[in-house]
Amino acid sequence: MSVVVESTQGWVLDARSLIDQGYSRCIRLRNHNNQKSHVKCRFKRQCFQVLKSHCNVSASAAAVEGGNADMLQKTDKQSKKRKRKHSELNQGEVDSQAFHEKIRSAVLEGTKSLVDSARPLGHLNGAADAVKEPLPSEECSLAALCEMAKELPLVDDEEQDECVLPLVAEDGSTSHVDLFSRVTENRADWAAVVTLMGEEYVIPPHTAFLLSDFTRIQPLVHYGRRFDLIVMDPPWENKSVKRSRRYSSLPSSQLKRLPIPTLASPNCLVVTWVTNRPSHLRFVRDEMYPHWGVEVLAEWLWVKVTTSGQFVFPLDSLHKKPYEVLVLGRYRSPAENSTSSSERSEVPVENHRLIVSVPSALHSQKPSLSEVLKPYIAAEAKCLELFARSLQPGWTSWGNEVLKFQHTSYFTLSPADDGADVPKDDKPGESSPPRHCSSTVDL
Q1: Is 437 inside a domain boundary?
Q2: Domains of the chain: total
Q3: By the 8 A CB rule, do 50 and 431 touch?
Q4: Element (H, E) at 30
Q5: 163 in a domain, yes or no?
Q6: 354-357 and 294-304: which strand pairing?
Q7: Does some domain include residue 91?
Q8: Residue 60 belongs to what H/E stretch?
Q9: Is the per-residue pLDDT at 443 higher than 50?
Q10: Residue 192, beta-bridge partner list
Q11: Are 357 and 329 a contacting pair, CB within 8 Å?
Q12: Are 363 and 137 in contact (CB under 8 A)?
């Protein structure tokens, strides 16, 4: 069950379950002999085993003794002792504290209520059966490959009708798939473990993706789809990213150049992950969304907790907050006439709702929003993720690391006990076109 709890305050999500539900039926393709076998595919459990909050040992021990509510108060007090004087804060920190004070009580009370509701259902009670295995290596060469692929010619305008390729060719091969200048589709009802560029990846059913950077996004535009939901996790500029060199960032001026008006259908729901830097939040609300013609509707908060329901960082920490912001808006097409505007029926998007989940221990892996956003989009909505590092069933995804968390090193693969359900005739890529993001994969 991926949505553990839903209330007026928000949701508790089981992020790993959200990933796994797309791989309940999975086949492994072997290019060298065109054979396929049924396999069990599960995202590795240790990636979602955040067992302790990032505070001192005594505070963690007190949290275990006193429960979540006591922990919230004690870690708050402990963090306040380390606060600098107000006069020592720069303007960005002052703005951040003002925003924090505005939403603090909603985070504190809402998280406690949601966690308390999840515990009787067997969630957020701690991980007694923790897996003692190392995390997979996060080394990824996809961005470097995208950089090299810039030397390849772009798809000409007259070739736009051929800008989509099936994941698997008629002969069952995946070795010649052009991942960099064409959108690749897996149209099958099954997930597939395939070899791409010499590495094995798990591709969900009814999914499409383009592996490219910002300068080579044209094939996605040529794809010809208008999307009803667009979710993006931009590579925001900040000092920690520069120091770590984990990924390249984009300046805000570049983000405004994303072709959202070309990709969005009228009344498309646009959702942007934002860092806790106030300038980024202001930019999204006051510049980027208005530039695209997107009306700001609400700000939600992703609250990160441990497997015991504790905040992963002290709530009042000056350096790391246990939450991140999402800005939700609607694209208002200039071509939309007044009649259609008055007749449209939209579910109101409530402000300051919480999404509570155990975060991935892997850098920048966000939880899927597909389940919590369903009430706000049409039943047959087409969904797109920008700057994606993973794929979702029924979605189209784009990014220069779009396959990163699809690598088999992040999954546990094992032979299926019963291979009777393995499709014998139809090949992945030869059945129906990709479904919409709200469709349910047969489990």
Answers
A1: no
A2: 1
A3: no
A4: strand 26-30
A5: yes
A6: parallel
A7: no
A8: helix 57-80
A9: no
A10: 27, 203
A11: no
A12: no
How large is the average pLDDT for residues 282-297? 97
Q: How far apart are CA 392 and CA 384, in angstroms?
A: 10
**Residue 35: Cβ within 10 Å count:** 11
Nearest to residue 28, comparing CAs of 197, 179, 200? 200
**pLDDT in the model for residue 93:** 82
Q: What pTM was computed for the model?
A: 0.86
> What is the chain's alpha carbon radius of gyration, rounded to the nearest angstrom?
22
The continuous run of DSSP H or E covering 71 comes out as helix 57-80
Helix/strand/coil for 343: helix
Q: What are phi and psi of 300, to 5 degrees?
A: -110, 165
- Per residue in 100-130, pLDDT (tens digit) is 999 999 999 999 999 999 999 999 998 777 8
Per-residue pLDDT tens for 161-172? 567 888 987 777
Cα 36 from Cα 424, distance rounded (Å): 9
Under 8 Å CB-to-CB from 380, ≥6 apart: which residues?
436, 438, 439
Please give the mean pLDDT across all residues of the chain.
83
Tokens found for residue 433: 């076109």
Contact partners, residue 135, CB within 8 Å, separation at least 6: 44, 46, 47, 361, 362
Domain that holds residue 346: 3-49+135-415
Q: What is the CATH number of the domain that holds 374?
A: 3.40.50.150
Place of tokens 């770590």: 244
Residue from 300, 420, 320, 355 nearest 4 by CA: 355
Distance (Å, whole) CA 224 – CA 395: 15
Paired tokens of 140: 């990824």
Locate 298 and state its tokens.
Answer: 């609400």
N-to-C CA span, the chain: 12
DSSP-assigned letters across all residues of 294-341? EEEEEEEEEEEB-TTS-BSS-TT-SS--SEEEEEEEEE--TT--HHHH
CA 162, 165, 171, 175 dihedral sign is: positive
Which residue shows structure tokens 């459990």?
A: 45
pLDDT digits (tens, 9 = 90+) for 143-166: 999 998 888 776 655 555 567 888
Say how far apart CA 123 and CA 308 lie, in whole Å: 8
User: Which single residue is written with the structure tokens 């091969």?
Assistant: 173
User: Going by DSSP bridges, is the β-strand pair 35-43/164-166 parallel, antiparallel, or unpaired?
Assistant: unpaired
Helix (H) or strand (E) holding 251: none
57 is a domain residue: no
